[in-house]
Write a structure and sequence with these properties.
With 285 residues, the protein is of the alpha+beta class. The chain is 32% helix and 26% strand. Strands 1, 2, 3, 4, 5, 6 and 11 form a seven-stranded mixed β-sheet that branches. Strands 8-9-7-10 form a four-stranded antiparallel β-sheet. It starts with a strand and ends with a strand.
Length: 285
């Protein structure tokens, strides 16, 4: 049986909309075992058929790229990444399906090509890039392909997730965004994202706080998250950088310690201590 482990991600990273993502150490695990037909185990009831399973869709997509008939497998799943919370749960399904298909096809694609396939399925690269490679990754598209660049994250930094009990769909998070933006807001983000890798590398929280000042999506998406303004204020006033993780509802907090969590308990949200995560891993049992 082929086993695949894929980690959670925090995409956008405030000013890095659709570009920048960080791997986190929460993981989903998948099993792929040759079968007489496609079968599913461990998924919620609504995802137990080929009509509504993202792992199956990603898996068969790779076969179609090569005009090959998909090899039927039993796909098993166990997960720790919260669903529809802005922590890359759907990206983990895509990455697992694509990498599994590549294995059963005899590994025709290298990791960079598999990343490009995943990003094209997802539609943007900021979630799948850290899920594939681990760490902090910035991506861009050139000559029709998505390409990654990797940046160091200082071990001085501590990461925390504030996870509300409610979901925000990517569709809803996109719908609240304005269709047009003023140049000053675009320049604001450009001036910050170009300096962000330096802040992560140096572990400079004061710089991170200044750079985590998004104008493109967080002011609009924050309205979908109960307590967003109050939580952000508490974090910033106590010396922590703060952003929405992905499209929400999870919020990401970065500091030198975890002490801020004591001040956030009253909101009734799940509070999780995290570290930068590893990229996708495969092994055979």
């Amino acid at each position: 049986m082929l086993r695949i482990k894929v980690g959670a991600t925090s995409a956008n990273l405030c000013v890095g909309f659709d570009v920048l993502g960080l791997a986190l150490d929460l993981y989903n695990e998948f099993g792929f075992e040759p079968s007489d037909e496609f079968k599913f185990k461990g998924f919620k009831k609504e995802y137990l058929t080929i009509k509504n399973n993202m792992v199956y869709d990603a898996y068969t997509h790779v076969f179609k790229l090569l005009n090959k008939k998909p090899i039927p497998v039993l796909i098993s799943f166990s997960g720790n990444i919260p669903v529809s919370r802005g922590l890359g749960s759907s990206s983990s399904l895509i990455v697992a399906g694509v990498f599994a298909a590549n294995y059963f096809l005899g590994n025709p694609f290298d990791k960079d090509k598999l990343f490009d396939i995943c990003a094209n399925i997802e539609g943007h690269p900021d979630n799948v890039a850290p899920a594939v490679y681990g760490g902090l990754v910035a991506s861009y598209k050139a000559n029709g392909s998505f390409k990654p660049n990797f940046y160091n994250v200082s071990d001085k930094l501590k990461f925390m997730a504030i996870i509300p009990p409610f979901k925000i769909s990517t569709h809803d998070a996109r719908e609240v965004l304005p269709k047009e933006l003023p140049y000053k807001d675009i320049v604001n983000n450009l001036s910050r994202i170009v300096n962000l890798p330096r802040a992560f590398n140096d572990g400079n929280i004061e710089l991170l706080k200044e750079l985590f000042d998004d104008k493109l999506h967080e002011p609009y998406r924050g309205k979908l998250i109960k307590g967003y303004d109050d939580i952000k204020k508490i974090c910033n006033e106590n010396g922590y950088a703060f952003s929405i993780s992905g499209s929400g509802s999870t919020m990401l907090v970065i500091g030198y310690d975890y002490n801020i969590l004591d001040k956030l308990e009253g909101f009734g949200y799940e509070l999780v201590k995290l570290n930068p995560g590893q990229g996708v891993s495969l092994w055979v049992e």
